[in-house]
Design goal:
Distance between the termini of chain B: 55 Å
Shape of chain A: globular
Strand content of chain B: 35-45%
Largest sheet of chain B: 10 strands, mixed
Largest interface: A-B, 28 and 22 residues
Shape of chain B: globular
Oligomer: heterodimer
Helix content of chain B: 10-25%
Strand order of the largest sheet of chain A: 6-9-10-3-11-12
Number of strands of chain A: 12
Radius of gyration of chain B: 21 Å
Distance between the termini of chain A: 30 Å
Radius of gyration of chain A: 18 Å
Strand content of chain A: 25-35%
Largest sheet of chain A: 6 strands, mixed
Number of helices of chain A: 10
């Protein structure tokens, strides 16, 4: 699904990612853990195609195709989805309008017809029930006045609607209490499928109790310094990042 | 002669004076009307087109911007041929249509509801109706020093006098459409008078459309709200790309009356909307909102003067501009709170979205407060679209152009929401969206 080769990324003239190699096979869930400033968010933005994240070297192969030169919307239409650490509030854009525009933009880019409003409404109702996203939330401007938990549920709802092949979850647990974490994790787990890969970026191990990864990578100073099974997360939790950071130095 | 100043006139000024010389005698009205036309023209001849040295015209140097002036627009033989695309299509309304400065009975919908009386200005002036002539003169009396108003007084050919009976509730909006037709440059001057009786309620849309011909529009609309009246007044200025549009609203708001004024500016090469609001009785309210859209080398000026002359009135002004290319948007707002106008609540907010490095936004909010127990505030901001918001939309597969359009419509949403008639609000939003879809919202 995803193959990142020797990825170097510069932001504002500063190199943040210094040669990342990462392979995420189809159907697998990989966790990327690392201390603050290790480059976790940079990696997620770079995969999603944010402007200003300049790839100076290396490749990002998604379904065998190098997506480095593509814009964020082109990547999204091909099946890349980034769940934001801090979903943005957009006053004046109704959540429903946003969801419909996003879905139909992607369909259009893929040469599929636009979804009719009744079909869309049906789809949203079905997907939102699972995530406890209320009709009231859908009518409100996008994320405006939403609690932290509501915002994250809304992110997962978007994921469920857009059905991406690769989900990158950036610090999805941040700002969530334990109940909200459970709802969001259940939503994510419901989307696990043999056709879909996920990258779960987190600072803490606790999210990985809920979304259990197949593989755990440790990111430090812009490089992946260790890769292991799900037990690696527990090890990290017990020992802290210090050992790994030193390993890398 | 010793001591006489040599007045250097621009080509446009010469052409305007010549216009009066050629056609002045044929303009409608009795001797009294001819008298005030002459006085207005003399005032114009004395001062000429305003330059940036005139404070109220600081950012709109009309002497420089108006390089020529056309003769009075010729009438159109077949008015029905000029009706092309109707941006208010689908809005159920009564229509009063003026083509090239003349009322068109064919294009208008005469079936006005009970409680509404309409007379054309040309009719009133031709019949020597002294009351109307006086009311028309009264509409501009306090604004005699303004060049645009002087030109309107000198050249007005027609307009509508709309009288809404006390307590009448007019369901469908009334449209005052100003159309220009033909390939020849021409000048149009209309003056409307809207008298809303006590406790009456109505919605009026003033619309301006035309082809890409170098024509000029000068309009003055006097709004007189009786006690407890409510008027929703929406101006939609979508003139042709080469037009010069000068539009003035002079509103007088009686006790407990409420004016909801919306002003959309998206057409014309050079345009200026002048909004003069005066509170005449306690408990009055004015909600002024506007959207200015500018692209290419457009110049659009909104200048407001709100006169809180009496206590216990509220006014709120929210204006937003989206400016790209080398376009320039101007907002001047002056809120005057006179000494007796205690418990005034006045707020003004000006926001601009700049789409290119060469776009310009000039804001001059002013509060002039002589009362000591009031609440007044003003603010102005300008900036670009938020890149974080854009990335969020892009990351969901929405292409950049569409994402930008979505954010611009959201930015304007707050002011568009000020149009209380839903159908009219829908039409105004559609005009904004069409403007954006045509790529004019692009950098």
């Amino acid at each position: 699904m995803l193959e990142i080769k020797n990825l170097h990324v510069t932001v504002d003239g500063r190199e943040i990612l210094k040669g990342i190699d990462l392979v995420v096979p189809t159907g697998e869930v990989h966790a990327i853990m690392g201390p603050n400033g290790s480059g976790k968010s940079t990696l997620s933005y770079t995969i999603a195609g944010r402007d200003g994240y300049e790839v100076t070297e290396g490749q990002i192969l998604f379904k065998g195709e190098d997506i480095v030169g593509m814009t964020a919307d082109e990547r999204a239409a091909r099946g890349v989805f980034l769940a934001f650490q801090y979903p943005l509030e957009i006053p004046g854009v109704a959540t429903m309008t946003f969801l419909k525009t996003a879905l139909n933009s992607q369909r259009k880019a893929r040469g599929e017809g636009e979804m009719s409003t009744p079909d869309f409404m049906r789809l949203v109702r079905e997907k939102s029930a699972l995530l406890k996203v209320t009709q009231d939330m859908l009518k409100r401007p996008l994320n405006v006045g939403f609690s932290g938990g509501e915002k994250k549920r809304n992110e997962v709802l978007q994921m469920a609607l857009l059905e991406p092949s690769l989900c990158v979850l950036d610090e999805t647990d941040s700002g969530l209490d334990i109940d909200a974490l459970k709802v969001v994790s259940d939503g994510v787990n419901a989307l696990r499928s043999p056709d879909r890969s996920m990258i779960v970026i987190t600072h803490y191990q606790r999210l990985l109790d809920h979304i259990v990864p197949d593989v755990v990578h440790v990111l430090s100073k812009g490089r992946i310094v260790k890769t292991g099974g799900k037990d690696l997360a527990l090890e990290l939790e017990a020992r802290g990042y210090a050992d790994f950071v030193e390993d890398a130095a | 002669m010793a001591g006489e100043r040599t007045i250097r006139r621009t080509a446009a000024e010469e052409a305007i004076l010549e216009r009066f010389g050629v056609a002045g005698a044929d303009l409608p009205g009795n001797d009294a009307v001819a008298g005030w036309r002459r006085t207005a023209l003399d005032a114009f001849a004395e001062k000429g087109l305003p330059t940036r040295r005139v404070e109220a015209w600081k950012y709109t140097d009309l002497k420089r911007l108006m390089t020529r002036a056309a003769p009075i627009a010729a009438p159109v033989a077949d008015a029905t041929a000029v009706l092309g695309h109707d941006p208010l299509e689908g809005v159920e309304r009564h229509r009063l249509v003026f083509v090239n400065g003349r009322y068109s009975a064919e294009l208008s919908d005469a079936g006005l509801p009970e409680g509404v009386k309409v007379m054309t200005v040309a009719e009133a002036l031709a019949s020597g109706d002294a009351a109307i002539a006086d009311a028309l003169a009264e509409a501009s009396a306090g604004l005699a020093g303004d060049a645009a108003v002087s030109l309107n007084s000198a050249f007005l050919t027609d307009g509508a006098v709309i009288r809404i009976a006390p307590k009448a509730k007019i369901e469908k909006p009334i449209e005052l459409a100003g159309l220009f037709a033909g390939d020849e440059a021409g000048a149009v001057a209309l003056r409307h008078l809207v008298l809303v009786g006590a406790d009456a309620s109505a919605d009026i849309v003033e619309s301006w459309f035309g082809p890409d011909v170098a024509y000029e529009t000068n309009a003055l609309t006097a709004l007189v709200l009786g006690a407890g009246a409510r008027l929703g007044y929406t101006r939609l200025q979508a003139e042709g790309a080469a037009a010069v549009h000068l539009g003035t609203i002079a509103a007088s708001i009686a006790a407990s009356a409420s004016l909801e004024l919306f002003n959309l500016m998206l057409g014309a090469a050079v345009s200026r909307a002048q909004l003069f609001l005066a509170f005449e009785g306690e408990g009055g309210n004015a909600d002024v909102r506007g959207a200015t859209l500018g692209a290419g080398r457009q110049h659009a000026d909104v200048t407001m003067m709100v006169d809180h002359a009496v206590p216990h009135c509220t006014s709120s002004e929210t204006l937003k501009a989206v400016v790209g290319g080398e376009a320039r948007a101007v907002f001047q707002g002056n809120i005057l709170v006179r000494q007796h106008a205690q418990h005034t609540d006045a707020r003004m907010m000006l926001n601009a979205l700049l789409r290119s490095p060469d776009a310009e936004f000039d804001a001059k909010p002013e509060l002039e407060i002589y009362a000591d127990d009031v609440q007044c505030a003003h603010g102005a901001t300008s900036g670009a679209l938020d890149e974080n918001l854009l990335f969020y939309l892009l990351s969901r597969g929405i292409p950049r152009a569409e994402a930008e359009e979505l954010l611009i419509v959201a930015f304007l949403g707050q002011v568009l929401a000020g149009i209380s008639n839903e159908a009219v609000a829908g039409a105004a939003t559609a005009m904004v969206e069409a403007w954006l879809a045509a790529g004019r919202g692009a950098k």
